[in-house]
Amino acid sequence: MDTDLLIALLNPTIALALGAAFLVLWFYQRHRPYLAVLGVSYCVSAPGFLLQYFTLPVGMVLTKLASNLCFTFAACCLVGAIIARYGRRVPYVAIGILAGGGLAAFCWFLFVEPDLTWRILSMNFGFGGLSLLVAAELRAVRDNGPTEKILFVLSLLSGLNFIGRTLLVVISHGPFTSYDGFYGSSYWTTALLTHALLSLLIALSLFSAAALDVMKALKTETHTDPLSGLLNRRGFEERALLVLQHCAAAKVPVALVLADLDHFKALNDRYGHAAGDQVIADFAAKLRAAAGARAVAGRIGGEEFAVLLSLSDLATARLFAEAVRTHYSAGSVDGLPPGTRVTASFGVAARTGDEGLEPLMRRADEALYKAKKNGRDSVRLSYERAETVFIPDSGSAS
Question: Where is the GGDEF domain (predicted)?
């Protein structure tokens, strides 16, 4: 096997391997469709590379058209998948204009005014535009993590490769008048090698991003209570400690609200565990809706919940607890007989000084105990203040 053939087979082999890897990854993560699109993108690009070197029985012209159709479809899939992976809205119109414009120009210089050099420039400029479009979309998220930053840089390099390298080679060694000697030219060699390198680097970055997604999902599962959808005790404590640190650094108030469903065991025994689970889920949904995105909410026990409210003093936290209590006690719960009233008791404590999470929770729990002891369906507060250190007057008698 000669060197030219080895080089020609390099890209389709890499593309098929990467495509298969992404499809296998998607098979185990069906909820991430961008992985399937990436797999299709790399697999479709493989015949595109093969048709650049081998000619079909339909002739050279139609073979080149088929090859570039594969490239265009693969590029559109790759661009859409990368942008979708990072939660950006896929710009289908822009993708269509860049890809369709490049392909239309290629067809013009293939069928109407045959010119190999302009065909090369047309396709490379179209792909370069798509690469820069990815960079433009990733610009907003490039500081979110290492994979975002790496893919942003690779997209810029890919755009420079398609546009800048092609122009330099064509100016230096072109124009190309025919395919005779084309596959041994500096353009073809540099195109194959740079594309293989960039494709591999982009794929590795996307694999890293997918691995981070899996790790994040596993961490979320270990920190989330499946019934309520809120943080479990471990997740709540870890997140609450971070919030307390940030609030201390910013010198802003923070308060803790503990809630406990009243007579939950009796409800569970009377109506069954399914109804009890529905009560838990219903209260958690109302608590999450009231807390919003800025609060840390968790289910820290069987029927006990906690909400850490940043930028909230004791009065604000009390209003929050009263609002949740009133709203919940006035509503009904699916799975329970009509008219069945379910209530909750609340204990509220505001942070004093640099108080840690454990003493803050202890004070809120004491206030909750008072609410349960004094009739339930109520809110009680902890009025404890930070301890002060007595410093004797230096002028006093010893």
Answer: 252-384
Per the listing, tokens 């307390």 go with 244
User: Which three-class secondary structure state does DSSP give residue 272?
Assistant: coil
Element (H, E) at 360: helix 357-373
Which is it for strands 304-310 and 296-299: parallel, antiparallel or unpaired? Answer: antiparallel
Distances (CA, A) of 75 to 7, 41, 107, 327: 21, 7, 17, 52
Cα–Cα distances in angstroms (integers) from residue 182 to residues 107, 140, 172, 173, in the given order:
19, 40, 14, 11
State how far the Cα of 93 lies from the Cα of 76, in Å rounded to an integer: 11
- What letter would DSSP give residue 88? P
Q: Assess contact for 127 and 75: CB atoms under 8 A.
A: yes
The DSSP code sequence of 373-397 is HTTSSSEEEE-----------TTS-
pLDDT string in tens for the chain (398-residue length): 466 667 668 889 989 999 999 999 999 889 899 999 999 999 999 999 899 888 899 999 999 999 999 999 999 999 999 999 988 999 999 999 999 999 999 999 999 999 999 999 999 999 999 999 999 999 999 888 889 999 999 999 999 999 999 998 888 877 887 777 676 777 777 887 888 888 889 999 998 888 888 888 777 778 889 899 999 999 999 999 999 999 999 999 999 999 999 999 999 889 998 999 999 999 999 999 999 888 999 999 999 999 999 999 999 999 999 999 999 988 788 878 888 889 999 999 999 988 999 999 999 999 999 999 988 999 999 986 544 333 444 333 33
The single residue of 137, 148, 237, 303 carrying the catalytic annotation is 303
Reading the block at residue 212, the tokens are: 């981070």
Active site residue 387: no
